[in-house]
Design brief:
Shape: globular
Number of domains: 3
Low-confidence stretches: none
Distance between the termini: 36 Å
Order of helices and strands: HHHHHHEEEEEEEEHEEHHHH
Helix content: 40-55%
Strand content: 15-25%
Number of helices: 11
Mean pLDDT: 94
CATH class of the largest domain: Mainly Alpha
Radius of gyration: 21 Å
């Protein structure tokens, strides 16, 4: 289905992104998967091409562009090239909301040039061992001590937690106030008392590192407070629609790659003297997935347009994530089935895509949470 949300500028950006992925990332995908970590050296190369932090003001190396179509293109070409788990989407789709739009001028001078150049890799630390979707239940605290905060606590499931140089950390600055006592504080690499725990051994997304983080009497200057003190929960909630839209974009792009890989396999793989795609049951399955993918794309494209116009609601973003990720899993599982026994062999790309897809219904708010948010809006 033809898409009409892009123009020539986006087409040029797409060509740049695809060439970069083909040259600098895709050839290393298997190595990164084995090592469980991407190479830091690729980040400055992306920064040099303007593929990171374009929302930042020009004075800090960015382009001052707030257009989610560029975010979508980066994700789409990532999957189209066959690249594995590098956290550019985390930087562009999520971190920009904090580092560009919630920081003051002094913080921007400190962090944005490195962020845009790919020299500073950032992460957001929200989840804790006993607090996932329930952000109000976090236990990590930050106590004011003169011009500093002293942070104690632990975080888990932190994407880019190993590579990160700057961690936007959700903390309780007023523990008695519940969600009204949460703040966001940036913790920098090598700050005394800040340590990394295990690099978590995940089912999928092997090359995208995910870690435990620990804070023991970590002294951070008050000037590292991002946004307003005790308003962190609202900052997080404001940024969740963009995060969920990003996940939906990922879902469509990954499902498209899986269907392309599977369609090619169905042409090439023969059984009983003919390509397996010519059997009616398989031909119908591919046809159904193609239609479903088109519907997903139209839905998500509409949300991208709404996001650019500033009209995307929290419920619409939740709906996009819910529908796209549930449909993604339906497609991925059927694609693996069409590969037969080879689909269960890790050297086939479909196996990696299938593993990587499973987390999509978990992070950014589970499918159950998405259904609840939508249901509440309907008055239930």
């Amino acid at each position: 289905m033809k898409r009409d949300i892009f123009d020539s500028v986006h087409d040029e950006f797409r060509a740049t992104a695809r060439a970069f992925y083909d040259r600098e990332c895709a050839p290393h995908a298997e190595k990164w998967e084995r090592e469980g970590l991407t190479d830091r050296a690729v980040w400055p190369k992306a920064g040099a091409l303007g593929l990171l932090g374009w929302e930042a003001p020009e004075e800090f190396g960015g382009q001052g562009i707030t257009d989610f179509r560029f975010n979508a293109i980066m994700v789409e070409e990532f999957y189209a090239s066959g690249t594995a788990g590098i956290g550019f989407a985390l930087q562009n789709d999520l971190l920009a909301s904090y580092l560009v739009h919630l920081t003051n001028e002094e913080q921007q001078k400190r962090w944005l040039p490195g962020y845009v150049a790919g020299e500073i890799i950032a992460a957001v630390a929200m989840s804790e061992p006993a607090a996932g979707s329930d952000l109000a239940g976090i236990k990590t605290t930050a106590v004011r001590d003169g011009d500093d905060y002293i942070i104690n606590g632990a975080k888990t499931f932190i994407s880019s937690g190993i590579l990160a140089d700057l961690v936007v950390t959700a903390v309780k600055t007023n523990p008695e106030a519940g969600h009204k006592g949460i703040s966001l504080i940036a913790v920098e690499r090598d700050t005394p008392g800040f340590t990394r725990g295990r690099k978590l051994d995940k089912i999928g997304l092997k090359s995208a590192d995910t870690a435990e983080l620990f804070f023991h009497d970590v002294r951070v200057p008050h000037t590292n407070l991002i946004g307003e003190e005790n308003r962190g929960f609202y900052h997080l909630m404001r940024n969740l629609p963009a995060e969920r839209l990003s996940i939906a974009v990922n879902a469509v792009a990954q499902a498209r790659r899986a269907l392309e890989v599977t369609t090619a396999y169905a042409h090439d793989r023969h059984a009983f003297g003919q390509p397996i795609g010519t059997f009616q049951v398989n031909r119908h399955a591919i046809a159904e997935m193609t239609v479903l993918l088109d519907v997903m794309q139209v839905y998500v494209d509409r949300c991208i347009v709404a996001a650019n116009a500033g009209n995307l609601t929290a419920e619409e973003a939740a709906g996009a994530k819910l529908f796209a990720t549930e449909s993604q899993w339906q497609i991925l599982d059927r694609c693996l089935q069409l590969h037969g026994g080879y689909g269960y062999v890790n050297e086939y790309e479909i196996a990696r895509l299938w593993r990587d897809a499973r987390v999509q219904r978990l992070y950014g708010g589970t499918s159950e949470i998405m259904r609840d948010l939508i249901g509440r809006k309907m008055g239930f």
